[in-house]
Request: fold
Amino acid sequence: MEYSLDLSIIVPLFNENESLPELASWIERVMDKNGCSYEVIMVDDGSTDGSWNTVRALAARNQRFRGISFRRNYGKSAALYCGFKEARGRVVVTMDADLQDSPEEIPQMYRMVTEEGWDIVSGWKQHRVDNKFTKNLPSKLYNATARAITGVKLHDMNCGLKAYKNEVVKSIEVYGEMHRYIPYLAKNEGFTKITEKPVHHQKRKYGKSKFGMERFVNGFLDLLSLWFLSTFGKKPMHFFGFTGILMFFVGFVMSVWMIAAKLIRQARDLHFRPVTDQPLFYLALTAVLAGIMLFLAGFICEMVSRNSSERNRYNIKEEI
Reply:
């Protein structure tokens, strides 16, 4: 497939007015030095500090710069989705607007995609300059959990600096807070050539971070949701049906065992406790009812899945 440009650089931003002129000049210097044809797509996620006026000025000065402005703050995933939709370059690079990501890394990442054949090259901030206790340690725990669940062996899943083949970003849909897991989304679409490159991490020069500690909790919940949808999204009965049958079987066996024990002791004129006086009976009854409900939930989810417009969407690599 032919592309009109070598690179599309997507910069999602929210209230980063002070850093934008410096970032734009930095990108221009690096790109001109390496002789790349490129475009820069700045997506303003509802900024209130005048960032959009700066983007408009940059686009007027250099036609390689383009801008998209949201009426309100939708989040980074929405910004990346719109940027991906507009990208025309052979390789698509994402980077943050806060000057913590260095454009100097882009040429090497571009070569890793085009010459070495990687689908995704993810940045790895080996030596972070953030606060050790509020950013570094939680980030290590979060990334270890993400590696275990997704099977994508990246040390820094959430690094904003990444390079993709164009067909990767055109094949995935980023929504909600799923921008953290784009490599996992790509892997589920069949793009398995994923690697990482150590990148230089710089201290924030202007403003303050827009993300707090809650992002780690939300990120973990999003990871579980994504894992469940990717594993059972098109076959929900495999999860709900199996779990429901298992719970029903356990509850049924417990109930039969208690009733049989009571009848045997009664037939032998031995002392026995009424089944309804035993707490275990109510646990067994709960398991039976929960099993039935889970099975029915799986049945309903299966019907919804089979009527979904996405049920036969497949990512075709090549046709002859």
Q: What stands out?
A: The chain has two domains: 5-232, 236-306.
